[in-house]
Amino acid sequence: MFAVFDHVKKPDLGRSVSERQILKLIKDCELLEEIDLENLVYQVRLDDERLKSQQLSDADRYVVVLIQHPLVALRYQLPSGEVRRIQMNFRPESGYDVAVKVFRALGLPITDKNIFTRPSQESMTKRASWNNPTIPRHPPTDQETQMKY
């Protein structure tokens, strides 16, 4: 399967021509899906308007992009109300980078599943001491034992 980001010129009403950015999903020379990315941007604007009056989770949004290297998942709503879900696995990795860059440039909401929280320095120090217990090289003398207690 191939994901192709393309610019298409379409005639508008009258004599003007508009340029649209399109995502085409192609498998075995067959066009499986053609997504007008400008429509997704419009839906994001609607989400932003709704966000002013209510709190939205990812499940409530019209458009969501989830990324987890090398996967990109896109969920969006068609004008009919039907929800479409697409998952793309990019190989080579440069395709993943291009897709993420395009979605970010369009301002689509992206949830990055690659982000992880680093443990604090204190917890890493404690973990290191648990993993490396100090073992005396010789049995303690009576004098050392008395000093500890």
Low-confidence runs: 122-137, 144-149
Major β-sheet strand ordering: 6-5-4-7
- Helices and strands, in N-to-C order? EEEHEEEHEHH
Number of strands: 7
Average residue-wise pLDDT: 78
Distance between the termini: 71 Å
Task: Report the β-strand fraction as a percent range.
Answer: 25-35%
By secondary-structure content and strand pairing, the structural class works out as alpha+beta
Helix content: 25-40%
* Major β-sheet profile: 4 strands, mixed
Number of helices: 4
What would you call the shape?
globular
Kindly provide the radius of gyration, computed on alpha-carbon positions and rounded to a whole number of angstroms: 27 Å
Describe this structure in a few short sentences.
By secondary structure, the protein is an alpha+beta fold. 33% of the residues lie in helices and 34% in strands.
Describe this structure in words.
- The chain contains four helices and seven strands.
- With 149 residues, the protein is an alpha+beta fold.
- Strands 6-5-4-7 form a four-stranded mixed beta sheet.
- Strand 4 and strand 5 form a beta hairpin.
Descriptive terms for the model:
single chain, 149 residues, alpha+beta, 4-stranded mixed sheet, 3-stranded antiparallel sheet, 33% helix, disordered C terminus
How do the strands and helices of this protein lay out in sequence?
Blueprint lengths: L1 E10 L5 E11 L2 E7 H17 L9 E6 L2 E7 L5 E7 L3 H14 L3 E3 L8 H11 L10 H7 L1
